[in-house]
Design goal:
Structural class: alpha+beta
Distance between the termini: 154 Å
Order of helices and strands: HHHHHHHHHHHHHHEEEEHEEEHEEEH
Helix content: 55-70%
Shape: elongated
Oligomer: single chain
Strand order of the largest sheet: 4-3-2-1-5
Largest sheet: 5 strands, antiparallel
Strand content: 5-15%
Radius of gyration: 46 Å
Number of helices: 17
Length: 533
């Protein structure tokens, strides 16, 4: 029976069989004290994490507490194995530094004994936990993860080949002779070095197994925490044992630890794959967001026919939402739990809302601007004390591009609560000009000259007809108004060109354009001569 089939059977047992059996047992036993819960998810310590998440979902709080204890026991024994191996490395370093062969030999024996005891205890604990789970599921006759028949056959053949190997030749007199002290020292040093190398390999493997157990324990703890369980002690223990310790005083051990972590599935490979997933998800999110923005712009332009400001704002908002969702998914690829982040954002929402009352006011004003549509992108507008071309808008501010190429961000609240003048909202616009002539000049001739100049300009509209009329007798001049009409985009050109041409024609006709002046009159009084007698 393969492991996936065992997993399916385990899930069905948890969902359907377990509650029925528990009810039958309760009915038979009556009000007697319920039996101690036997964990079942530990049937295989290497169970895939995605399957474990499904299995623990229907379990109750009390059942998850039992599962957490079992996984914690496996982790605790693995931590003991790592500690024993690390202690062995320290001991071998002492043996390598010692010159006493006997002391080195005793040290190696101690290291092997401690390591063997830790391995034996860990295997015994794991066997007890897995056998209990198998027995609870009725699978006590099946060995999970049992090697395939071909592998067993190959292993047997290898063992038989070893057994059939030629027997060692009896020692000759030379081999049984007493070994020289120098050779004994070299052999002792080699034995210590070999022992240390094996311990370094063992530590790397054990740390990878520890990371695997921590991942599975965290899955159980997360489900237990969601159902009201207290997991603080478990989390503290995981934080205490999970870091990889590096002995910087031992260069060999440091290098072996780093290399082992980089090549391990639960270390460097896992981090590299997670980072790759993170980057790929961000890129995919950006591409999807851009596509959604383009599609949204097209739908809004073709179907709803909103203003360009509204279309741009809605499309950018949807794009940002897609990017935020993609970033949250990317964080999960880094195995970062975003639930606390979301909860923290929700908890601080009220405080942020109170602190950003002005921003919320701008938000409301932005909505009113979008609904009433007083201007659009590309319009020349005077609002909030600024005159310029509308560049873009969000729910907080509006961006103006002035005619001298300045970018000004005006809060929406300042715009909506003041007068808004949309200079280019209409297709045509009247050009208002006023010319002053001297009192000694012929005003009728001046009117005709101005009218001829206006009618001759190609961008002055024929309808409405331009108006040229003398309307004011000023302090220094007779004032004549000129009011032709032009397309909005031609307004500035019409005004400047008409003024230039009128000035030239006035000069040719000898018509003066007076400047403000004031006459000052002096009155002198002749005093009678003074009598000096």
């Amino acid at each position: 029976m393969t492991f996936p089939r065992l997993t399916i059977g385990l899930l069905l047992w948890v969902v359907m069989v377990c509650p029925v059996l528990a009810q039958e047992e309760q009915e038979k036993a009556g009000p007697a004290k319920p039996a101690e819960y036997i964990p079942v998810t530990t049937i295989n310590p290497n169970i895939p994490t995605d399957q474990l998440k499904i299995i623990v979902k229907p379990l109750t709080k009390s059942e998850l507490e039992g599962e957490a204890k079992a996984w914690f026991e496996l982790l605790r024994n693995k931590a003991r194995q790592i500690a024993a191996a690390q202690l062995g490395i320290k001991k071998t370093n002492e043996a390598m530094a010692a010159n006493d062969q006997e002391a080195a030999k005793n040290t190696l024996e101690q290291v092997q004994a401690v390591k063997a005891k830790a391995e034996e205890d860990a295997k015994k604990a794991e066997q007890q936990i897995t056998e209990a789970a198998q027995k609870e599921l009725g699978l006590d006759g099946v060995k999970v993860g049992e090697p395939a028949k071909e592998d067993v056959a190959e292993g047997d053949r290898a063992e038989n080949a070893d057994d059939e190997s030629p027997a060692e030749e009896p020692a000759t007199e030379e081999t049984t002779a007493e070994v020289a002290p120098a050779e004994k020292t070299a052999e002792a040093e080699k034995a210590v070095a070999d022992t240390k190398g094996q311990l370094l390999v063992d530590v790397t493997v054990l740390q990878e197994e520890r990371s695997s157990l921590i991942n599975r324990l965290n899955i159980v703890l997360t489900s237990l925490e969601l159902k009201g369980g207290d997991v603080a002690e478990y989390r503290k223990y995981i934080s205490a044992v999970s870091p990889i310790e590096v002995d910087t005083s031992d260069v060999t051990a440091t290098w072996a630890t780093l290399v082992g972590w980089l090549v391990s599935k639960e270390g460097g490979q896992r981090i590299g794959w997670n980072l790759s997933e993170f980057i790929l998800i961000l890129i995919a999110s950006w591409l999807i967001a851009k596509l959604v923005q383009v599609v949204t712009n097209w739908l809004l332009a073709k179907k709803l026919r909103l203003s360009q400001l509204a279309e741009s704002l809605i499309a950018r908002t949807i794009k940002n939402v897609v990017m935020i969702v993609g970033f949250a998914i990317a964080l999960t690829a880094l195995e970062i739990d975003i639930t606390p982040i979301v909860a923290a954002i929700g908890a601080t929402g009220l405080v942020v809302g109170l602190a950003l009352q002005g921003t919320l006011s701008n938000f409301a004003s932005g909505l009113m601007i979008l609904i009433n549509r007083p201007f659009d992108v590309g319009n020349v507008v005077t609002a909030g004390g600024v005159t310029g071309v509308i560049h873009q808008m969000n729910l907080v501010s509006t961006t103006f591009k002035t005619f001298d190429n300045q970018t000004i961000h005006v809060p929406n609240n300042s715009i909506w609560n003041n007068v808004i003048t949309n200079i280019t909202a209409n297709h045509t616009r009247r050009v208002d000009m006023e010319f002053g002539i001297g009192y000694d000049d012929d005003f009728e001739q001046a009117e005709q000259i101005i009218l001829d100049v206006v009618n001759a300009h190609e961008k002055v509209l024929k309808k409405p007809e331009p108006q040229v009329i003398t309307h004011d007798l000023g302090e220094s001049s007779v004032n004549i108004v000129c009011r032709p009409w032009a397309r909005t985009e031609d307004w500035w050109q019409v005004k400047t060109e008409v003024i230039r041409e009128v000035k030239r024609r006035f000069d040719e006709a000898g018509i003066s354009i007076p400047f403000p002046q004031q006459d000052v009159h002096f009155h002198t009084k002749i005093m009678p001569p003074v009598d000096q007698g």
